[in-house]
């Protein structure tokens, strides 16, 4: 085992999930200079220069028609072969839906120690130390990974800021053949359903405007979209709003949705249940708009506005648009 980190760069249909770039900052936090990356998929060789710009010394490519779409067993097999080729001390990947699914499968196969959804990383005598948010964000725990074996860490989105890419950087590449294994087709891909249709994803956005059940309909969410648009942000929603069918669950923020830590989170008509807070309390600046003065969302808000969202949100959108116009 070498003192090297291997970063799993997540891509879908040739588009890299930008959260993957944050892993290069996480690698720096571990103090490891020998950073390799691996890209798994079909027709992914065009992504090499982009990944090299973030500081990968070497990029392992596993490019095969069988890997066109994410499937747990084929990707786990591919990532295991990349790990065998790189022989790293640490594997880093983002805690996305793919990362949550893939990391334990690979950890079991590689007999690795694994910590997921980690916030802060450090390393002492070859042992990774990570912090995790526990009990819906009420406490933070620090853990060390078992020594003497491969250490795998899945890092929460936006826990680290991606380093600035350096133009013109290059990396050595190595292609690794993909060999299908017995039973890989136990999980079959039947359909790829597109849910967010090109609209910015909450976990990638710097600004998130979220709406709750109080919006009362999908149509009424229009004012949330207008505010998000003028701020160049993404739209999120509480679970109650998603369960009611006002928004797709891919927009749900919270314990059972996505965890976001944007620069600005605007909660419109969201009560602030502990499960919602678990997904957004790490945001740098929180603005809450709610008619109920005692709503728990105000306990975590930087700025609170006790008012009707149907009045305030359009006013805010107009004011920001005007500010942008006047520079
Ligand atoms: C296991 C489990 C997991 C869960 N996971 C999640 C999760 O991931 N994410 C999540 O969000 N929830 C989750 N929940 C649900 C959570 O407990 C709450 O029920 C939910 O967050 C409530 O959503 P809400 O704030 O939109 O709705 P409500 O609780 O109905 O609150 C609506 C708020 O809007 C305010 N309001 C009403 N009208 C207006 C108006 N005109 N202008 C301004 N404010 C107004 C009200 O004062 C109130 O504060 C989970 C629950 C469980 C049990």
Characterization of this structure:
The chain is an alpha/beta fold and 327 residues long. The chain folds into two domains: 5-186, Rossmann fold (3-Layer(aba) Sandwich), CATH 3.40.50; 202-326, Rossmann fold. The protein contains nine helices and 16 strands. It has a nine-stranded mixed sheet, with helices on both faces. A five-stranded parallel sheet has the order 13-12-14-15-16. Helix 3 (72-86) packs across helix 4. Flavin-adenine dinucleotide is lined by residues 212-214, 238-241, 252-257, 269-271, 273, 275-276, 279, 289-292, 295, 308-310.
Summarize the structure.
With 327 residues, the chain is α/β, with parallel strands linked by helices. It has 9 helices and 16 strands.
The fraction of residues assigned to DSSP E strands is 25-35%
Number of domains: 2
Give the % helix. Answer: 25-40%
CATH structural class of the largest domain: Alpha Beta
List keywords for this structure.
binds flavin-adenine dinucleotide, globular, Rossmann fold, about 325 residues, 2 domains, single chain
